[in-house]
Amino acid sequence: MLYGIVAAAIALFLSAALAALLRAPALRLGLLDRRQRQRRVPLFGGAAVVLATCLVAVTGDRTGIAPLGDGIEVLLAAGGAVAALGLIADVWRLNVRFLVLGTAVAAAFVVPYGDTGTLPGVAAVGWITFVALAFRALDHADGVAGTVGVVTAFGVAACVAVEIMDGLVVLLSVFAAALTGFLMHNWPPARVALGACGSLFSGFLLAAAAVIARAGQDPVEGAAVLFALTAVAGADVLLVLVSRRLARRPLLRGAPDHLAHRLRRLGLTPQGVVVLLGVAAFGAVLVGVLAHAAWLQAGAVLWVAGGVLVVVLGLLRVSVYGPARARGGRQGGGRDPRGGRRAARAPRAPRARGALQEERTGARPGPRTMARPAPVYAPRRQPEAAQSPPDSEVRRAGGSVSPQVNASLRVRNG
């Protein structure tokens, strides 16, 4: 027990120091969080978490101070491979298909098929992959993924402790401490970001440890416990998928439609969003731990599922996408009666006066007419009684006109 506390303390300070040291190289290399439009955040925070966790865990196991036990080294190696894949995705924009495939292959090496069986083992591989990608999607705001990850790590460690797996408890304690050290730099406003490297590693390690803890037990109750342990990440994925589907937007195109984005639109501060999501994760994880320890029935997880459904339906009413851009320029073309969109009409070019006169009269104007065309609509001839005498001034638009100009206007008007 004392060895685990010492290892966790070392991991906390090492992760905080590495996150501070790796910030400068990330800025120089331009490895910044592309989701932040107004503020760019370096992406090497996840690498600090992975390095601190692996270094402390491997050192404790090799020296015998905090042995991990059988099978934990495979889990740590698979998690490191997933973290490397996420680091590649941070440096280059890797396709999501490669992330899914690589995470699924790594998950296939850590599932205990002898305890779970073939079919539940395949389902466990899919669930581990889903949780890893869900934590990557949860890293959409400062402090959210780190806070939820720390709470979930303590919950999964409690479930593992019930099964008396001391090595896995030590690993999860070290990971939770490393994630806490990272949060010292990631609390809003963040100076470093977790990135795909740290978020994929976090989700993979937590999901795989939960599967190992539930292996060999009732699969239905196990599914309920696993859902409760990762309810916040699952709610975020469900909210995004349903929202983009209803808005007819691409499912894989990034948008400010996650949990934290919608809570910010409701008026919460960045710190308030982190605290609220952390409290929600703590409540769901507590239900999962009590259900795993048989202190609550598995049906209690239905309350967690109901809360997730209420939150998703409520936040769907928050507008996040804004009005759609009009296609075809400023002058929209409207819709065709057959259901298609009618093309916008191009504005007509102004015609010359000579061409307009030719169209109306049918005669081509001469050279002098082209130089000074006659008016198309001449004013009507006024009666003699309404005309002013030649020697008087005519008031027009608040000004005076001389008799000579008045006489020329009369001659011109016919």
From TrEMBL:
One of its GO terms (cellular component) is plasma membrane. CDD domains: GT_WecA_like. One of its GO terms (biological process) is cell wall organization. It comes from the Bacteria. It is a multi-pass membrane protein. Residues 326-414 are annotated as: Disordered. The keyword Transmembrane applies. Residues 340-351 have a biased composition (Basic residues). The chain crosses the membrane at residues 43-60, 72-92, 98-114, 121-138, 150-180, 192-212, 224-243, 272-295, 301-320. PANTHER family: PHOSPHO-N-ACETYLMURAMOYL-PENTAPEPTIDE-TRANSFERASE (PTHR22926), UNDECAPRENYL-PHOSPHATE ALPHA-N-ACETYLGLUCOSAMINYL 1-PHOSPHATE TRANSFERASE (PTHR22926:SF3). This is Glycosyltransferase.
